[in-house]
Amino acid sequence: MPALLFVSVASAHVALAQEGGPERRRRHYDGQARAYYRGPVRFTLGGGVGYYNGDLTGSLSNQFLGPSFTGGLQYQVHPHWQVGGEASYIRLGAKDYLPARGLAFQGSNAAGITFVRWEPLHDEGLYASPRRPAAVFKPYLKAGAGFVLYSPRAFYGTTRPNGNITPAYLPAERNDYPALALAFPVGVGFTVRLTPKLGASLEGAYSFTTTDQLDDISPVSGRSASALKDGYGQLELKLEYAPWAR
C-alpha cells in the first residue's frame, strides 16, 4: 500500500515532537528566504461516491453510483507542497448508453496511489515566524500515480443488481480477475481549517487507467468496438487530522 511508505516519515515526526519546542527542529527556507518547518504529518479518512467512464457510458444518468472510501497519510514538505499516499475502495457500475446493446456491469476496485498536492494560496501558519493567523480556506490541485485492482462482472440488463435481482452474468473476458492496472489520478479540492489539528476537505478526482476492462467490456470478447481505456472518478469528503501539529 503506497500510504505505508510514509509511516517512516510519521515516526520521524513523532520523534521530533518529543524533543521539545520548534526551535529544535530543522529550519528550511523558501524563495523569499523565509523560514518554515516541514510537517506535520496528517492522517486522512473520507468517503463519497465513485463514477465510471468507459465503453458503456460517461453519462451520470447511466451510472450505478457506488460508495468510495479513502484513507492515507500526507506530509507538508514546503508551504505550497504536500506529498502523500492513499488507499481506496471504489464500487463502480453502469448501464449501456446503447439500448440495443443492453449491457451493464458492476465491479469492486481497490486502488493505492502516491501523490503530490499543490496549494497555490499563501498560508502564514506554515512559517516559523507567522505574521498573520493561519489560513482557514485553502484550494489545491493534486496528481499522482499508482495501481488499481479491479474485478468487474458484466451482464445484460438496465438495473443495478441487488438482493431481489440477480442477473445472468456473462463469461469473464479474462480468467485472472482481480486484475491489476496502472492508475494516474488528477484532482482538485479545498480544505477548511476547523482547528489547529483538524481540517475537512472536499475533493473531486479522476483516474486514468491502462486498462479497457474496468467494466469487463472490450474488443477482446466483441462486446465493444472501442479500445479506449476506461477511467473512474471519486467525489469525497475527507477529514485531515494532524496529531502532532503545533
Element string (H = helix, E = strand):
HEEEEEEEEEE
Question: What is the makeup of the main sheet?
Answer: 8 strands, antiparallel, barrel
Helix content: under 10%
Shape: elongated
Q: Output the radius of gyration.
A: 21 Å
Which consecutive residue ranges, at least 5 long each, have pLDDT under 50? 3-12, 14-23
Distance between the termini: 28 Å
What is the tally of beta strands? 10
Biggest sheet strand order reads 3-4-5-6-7-8-9-10
Percentage beta strand: over 45%
**Which structural class do you get from the secondary structure elements?**
mainly beta
Mean pLDDT: 90
Number of helices: 1
Protein described:
The model is unreliable at 3-12 and 14-23 (pLDDT under 50). With 246 residues, the protein is mainly β. It has one helix spanning 7-19, and strands at 28-29, 35-36, 41-53, 66-78, 81-95, 103-118, 137-156, 179-193, 198-209, 231-241. It is elongated. The protein has one helix and ten strands, in the order αββββββββββ. The longest helix is centred in the N-terminal third of the chain and has 13 residues, at 7-19.
Q: How are the elements arranged and paired?
A:
Blueprint: H1 7-19, E1 28-29, E2 35-36, E3 41-53, E4 66-78, E5 81-95, E6 103-118, E7 137-156, E8 179-193, E9 198-209, E10 231-241
Antiparallel strand pairs: 1-2, 3-4, 3-10, 4-5, 5-6, 6-7, 7-8, 8-9, 9-10
Keywords:
mainly beta, elongated, 246 residues, two-stranded antiparallel sheet
